[in-house]
Amino acid sequence: MKRDYEYIVLGLGGLGSGAAYWLARTAGAEVLGLEQFELGHLRGESQDHSRIIRLSYHTPAYVRLAKRAYESWAELEKEAKESVVLRTGGLDIGPRQSAIQLATYAESMHSEGVEYESLEAAEIMRRWPQFRLTDEIHGLYQADGGIAMAARANAAHQRMAREHGARLKERVAVTDVRAASGEVDVTAGGASYRCRRLVVAAGPWSNQILDFFGLHLPLEITQEQVTYFDTPHLRDFEPGRFPIWIWMNDPRYYGFPVFGERGTKIAQDVGGKPVTLDTRTFEPDPENLRRVEDFARRYLPSALGPVIYSKTCLYTLTPDRNFVIDSVPGHDNVVVAIGAGHAFKFASVIGRILSELAIDGETPSEVSPFSIKRPLLQEKDPTRTYLM
Ligand SMILES: Cc1cc2nc3c(=O)[nH]c(=O)nc-3n(C[C@H](O)[C@H](O)[C@H](O)COP(=O)(O)OP(=O)(O)OC[C@H]3O[C@@H](n4cnc5c(N)ncnc54)[C@H](O)[C@@H]3O)c2cc1C
Q1: Closest atom of ligand 1 relative to the 175 alpha carbon
Q2: Entry pTM
């Protein structure tokens, strides 16, 4: 059987669109992308106006990856001639006694030469009087933090992949994947395609695809939600006047300046219930919304207003919340990425790494923390630690 494409990308959400773009920069028309729904659909993980992007992370390795993430977005922006990242500044705040230690974030940034400021509550409120904080709150400010414009970035990756010659097919579900004499056969939408390398970026559907290789990872899918609030203080929450922020405690909350809608956006991280692909709904959870409103009423009251809408979305969580970026054991020609509920900011660089692994078999980025063979992923019922 003749080979149809050098590279096939399975799944064109955030990560797969990134992979299709970076592959197409090198391999052009040798790239096929397959997406089961329409491009830009809302059933996965990647589609909203905004996702947080930041250099502030808890380990130096993540800070290094975040630096390469900004570089990768900048390359896309240059080629696509449009912006997909908006720097608003980023604020990590929380109580001094907290489930998440800001010191680990500060040390990681320091060791990677990233400039940041440590701020006391009074200084935070002087700069952003929108916050109501008591003295036991402190924070870190990093000027590069901001918004990755998710929907727009996905469309830019897809458009530029096509401009480089890639074929992206929507509404074709992959229903079978088989190793075939050192290559891979993929069945989708009634057709069969053979490729030299397969890139899997299937988000919450990852285990369905890994199943073709006899693999099942202990992933937990949760139904998350974000809410847009019709604040009467719109000007106070414009980008430029207000940063993206993360409340560093358990539970963890996060929010955005006004962007994409006529209001603020606030959510709880891992505030959703475990679901399956069959049990997920598109109904927001009122309890989750109540927690978000209670939090904001206390610390950020002027951001609140009538709910414009809450939007559901899925997380695909590994037990340690680290990504999977690796080849499938026993199948070096199949590479896979799973985003663990914080990958959008890295969508372009993860796509780039997947393309490097598929084309060269290696990447300059450190992917060892994201090994599919790490012991925790071999356990059936591992301890889950989602705060990081
Ligand atoms: C509410 C919410 C807030 C978030 N906030 C942030 C944030 O602020 N910052 C951040 O960095 N990250 C954030 N994330 C996480 C980030 O959005 C995800 O990690 C990232 O989008 C994952 O992208 P993905 O491509 O892996 O998954 P998806 O976007 O779900 O893409 C997978 C694609 O594969 C397709 N597919 C699956 N199976 C098949 C098949 N058999 N055939 C064909 N196609 C198939 C699916 O249809 C889907 O389009 C957030 C996520 C949510 C839900």
Answers
A1: 41
A2: 0.98
Going residue by residue through the chain (388 aa), what tens digit of pLDDT does each one get? 567 999 999 999 999 999 999 999 999 999 999 999 999 999 999 999 999 999 999 999 999 999 999 999 999 999 999 999 999 999 999 999 999 999 999 999 999 999 999 999 999 999 999 999 999 999 999 999 999 999 999 999 999 999 999 999 999 999 999 999 899 999 999 999 999 999 999 999 999 999 999 999 999 999 999 999 999 999 999 999 999 999 999 999 999 999 999 999 999 999 999 999 999 999 999 999 999 999 999 999 999 999 999 999 999 999 999 999 999 999 999 999 999 999 999 999 999 999 999 999 999 999 999 999 999 999 999 999 998 8
Pocket lining for ligand 1, CB < 6 angstroms: 10-16, 34-37, 44-46, 51-52, 173-174, 201-205, 224, 226, 267, 313-315, 339, 341-345
Closest by CA position to 92, among listed 65, 68, 119, 112: 119
The candidate with the shortest Cα–Cα distance to 91, out of 140, 51, 144, is 140
User: How far does residue 45's CA lie from ligand 1's centre (Å)?
Assistant: 3
Rounded Cα–Cα distance for residues 276 and 207 (Å) = 11
| Pair of tokens at residue 195 | 């490729």
Q: Mutation test of ligand 1: which of 41, 51, 199 has the most ligand atoms closer than 8 Å to its C-beta?
A: 51
